[in-house]
Amino acid sequence: MDEVRKLEAKGLARAKSRSRRRRLATIRSRTIRGSLALFAVLWGIVFVQLASGNDPALSGKHPAERRPVARSEPTPAEPAREPAPEAEAELDGSEFEVEEEPAPEFEELEPEPEFEEAAPEFEEAAPEIEEPVVTGSS
Amino acid sequence: MTAVGPHIFWITSRAAGIAAMMLASGSLGVGVLIRGRGESRRLLGSDVRALHEALSLATLVAIAIHGLALLGDAYMHPSPLDIAIPFSGAYRPFWTGLGIVGGWGLAALGLSYYARSRIGAARWRYLHRFIPVFWALAIVHTLGAGTDAAQPWMLIALGLPAAPALFLLLGRLFGAAEPEPGGRRQAPRPQLSGRRG
């Protein structure tokens, strides 16, 4: 009788363990599938946003507009993200040969006003130091 | 219409980053429930533990995709060191640095679960309590460096899972000093090292 009960208990435990394992596998696979679906949805949202021209970085509406550090000013047609060859070269630091822009003419600038530094007209008064009066007794 | 081809890696990184934040918030909320005391702990069994583990691993995978996808971006063109070492990159180094610290922290503390026997259960549990700090860093990184940070859909996507997680976390933090209705505080599970008797 005891043997039968033991066997029954063992079988029950095995079945419980099997069902638990199955449940955990289901949870894991659902989580993985859910995560993939979430990623796909978010990818789609960003994709559509970018393709439709409403991307915050490309439209320049966002304060965190993407600009590389060593990049020249973006053109208005493709504001911030077109990888210009010279910009890539600057980022790489491999080449620094960039087409020279015409030097701005500085002749238009008004010359700075010349002025003479007026020498300060005052006599430095020698500080009068009063001799300390010794009054106390040691 | 904008040509999307050159931005594929960038789109992938952004989507993975947002997914990582949502998954991390979900995992944190579930984790707080597991570590809850009293009735909530009794109701939630190994199923929730498995959910927490799966969400955590999914978060780490998403974080890895978020960083690695940037390596393929022709515009930013970061080096592996830029995405691995905090505050070293050229693009918004402070905010991205916070994200890198958060990512490494989540990875280290999350994966330490599998080294519990080496670390020691009590020490691991103590370290695991710091996960919300790195989660908070990741949120700050998202809001500071995220391209979509000002977009309403992004704020909703970030806030929906983060709000309950924060609520549960604060409830746990401020309810920690209160004694359990049953009497004493929940002690860490005793280690079965000796004979029963």
Structure commentary:
The complex is a heterodimer of chains A (138) and B (197). With 138 residues, chain A is mostly helical. In chain A, 45% of the residues lie in helices and 0% in strands. By secondary structure, chain B is mainly α. Helices cover 67% and strands 0% of the residues of chain B. The longest helix of chain B is centred in the first third of the chain and has 27 residues. Chain B is globular, with a radius of gyration of 19 Å. At the A-B interface, helix 1, helix 2 and helix 3 of A face helix 1 and helix 3 of B.
The topology string of helices and strands of chain A comes to: HHH
Q: Could you give the distance between the termini of chain A?
A: 115 Å
Structural class of chain B: mainly alpha
Number of strands of chain B: 0
**Distance, first to last CA of chain B:** 76 Å
Mean pLDDT of chain B: 83
User: Oligomerization state of this entry?
Assistant: heterodimer
Shape assignment of chain B? globular
Write the layout of secondary structure elements.
The complex is a heterodimer of chains A (138) and B (197).
Chain A: H1 2-51, H2 56-59, H3 85-92
Chain B: H1 8-34, H2 39-43, H3 46-70, H4 80-84, H5 93-111, H6 116-119, H7 121-128, H8 131-145, H9 152-175
Helix pairs in contact in B: 1-3, 1-8, 1-9, 3-5, 5-8
Give the tags:
heterodimer, A: 138 residues, mainly alpha, 3 helices, disordered C terminus, B: 197 residues, 67% helix, globular
At a glance:
The complex is a heterodimer of chains A (138) and B (197). With 138 residues, chain A is mainly α.
